[in-house]
Amino acid sequence: MNEILIAWLGNAGFDMFEEIEDGLKAYIPSMEFDQKNFKEVLAQIPEAENISFDQTLIKDQNWNSQWESNFEPVTIEGRVHIRAPFHPSQNFETELVIEPKMSFGTGHHATTSMMAELMLSLSMDGKSVLDMGCGSGILAILAAKFKAINILAVDNDDWAIENCLENSIRNNTPDLKIIKGESEVLENLSFDIILANINRNVLLADIPLYTKSLNKGGLLLLSGFLSEDRKMILDKAAESGLRFQKELSRLNWMAMQFVKE
Question: CB of 114 within 8 A of CB of 120?
Fold first, then answer.
């Protein structure tokens, strides 16, 4: 049930989630919270009559620090090791040090780990890369570790921009270009690979823009949507001139790879 709630609330603007024993904590900037819209979204969720909630206004803070002490390292395909700064270094092919703060992207969520798995199957050496909705910067930094060049990381959240910058320095990938914005920043830009781990509604709206910004033969990797959204994503990609290549599925979340021919 939590996976379904996360997907629906993500479409309503909530951008960070914490699973707890008896439910889910969801976070959204106070200026973006719309009580009426929130209740309308809840009403559309399956079994909505069984959902109860309360809300609390909290001051700006690094609320992730409350769980960072329990943050466990993540290993992807035995090749990529993702750890927090307070964990000891390990002998892996690729190691990322990520301090999430208030940004999404630690490698723990299925969407992030599946995006990383898709990246592991690619040759990124010398390729230009866009990380759209970069959050902590984990995917952009991983692309840099895989020898990609001209990497642009974009997010519309100030916390994410700050966190991505800090993590890029921490991982010795200072050449990342990090900017605040949304899909409008893509005008007149082109990339060999575009990474977008966002949410269904944003993906459906922006797939045509991503396609326009892809070089011929370029790849689009998407995640942040549920298995029931699969057909919508496939249809929008096909409509935009992309050919489906592969997909991954985990805990009802999906990741897909497309090519522009």
Answer: no
